[in-house]
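haha ok so turns out i had the wrong file open the whole time. this is the CORRECT one, sorry everyone. sequence first:
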Amino acid sequence: MNTEATTRMRHKFILLVMSFCLLIQLTTTATMHVQAEGGHEKTENTTENSKVQTKEKDSKEQIQKQILLDRAKREYRIQQKIVLDASNRAILETAIETTGMEVVKSADAAIQKVEEEKVSEDANQVENQAKSEESENQEEILEVEEEKDYPVLTKSGGVNYFNGHKETWYSERVLPGGGLHIPGRYTDENGLVRDEEDYICVASSDYPKGTIIETSLGTGKVYDCGCDSGVIDIYTNW
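then structure:
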C-alpha cells in the first residue's frame, strides 16, 4: 500500500517536473522569437530611416541647386536688362538729338505759316470791310443825289458848290475835334458828324458858332472855324 502511494507520488512529481521544463522551453522559445522579430523590425526601421534621410538629403541638395540656378538666371536677366536699357537710352538720346531741331524748325515754320495766314486774312477782312463801307456810303450818297435835283458833296468828289458857297469836308479821323464841345455828338449812317439835335456839324469863317445853315447834305450848325471865306467845311468820319 505504501509502495503504490510512493510510486504514484513519484510519477506525479516527474510529470510536474516535465511540465515545468516544457513551460520553461516554451517561454524561452517565445522570448527568442519575439526578440528575433523585434530585431528584424528594428533593422527595417533603421533601413527605412536611412532611406528617408537619404531622400531628404537629396531633396535639400536639389532645392539648393534649383535656388542657385534661379538666382543665376535672375542675375543674367538683370544684366541683360541693364545692357538693353542702356542701349535703348543711347538710341533714344541719339534720335532726340538728330530729330529735335528738325521738329522744332517744323513747328516754328507751321506756327509762322499760321500767323502769316491769320495776318493776311485779317488784312483782307479789313480791306474788304473798308471797301464795303465805302461802297455803302457811295451808294447812300448816290441815293441822296437821285432824290435831290442838285449835286451833293461826296467823299470821292471832295468839293461841291451849293447855295452860293463852296462845300468841302474834313474828317474826325484826322482832326478828332475834342475841343469843339459838340453835345450828343455821333456819326450817322452816311459818315456825317451830328449833334444831339441831328444838325450836321460844320466849320465856317463867315458865320458865328451856332448859326444854322443849309448844306447839300442837310441842315447844319456851325461849331468850328478856320476855313477860307465862302467855304462851308463839313465835319465827317470819312
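The helical segments are 2-147.
again sry for the mixup
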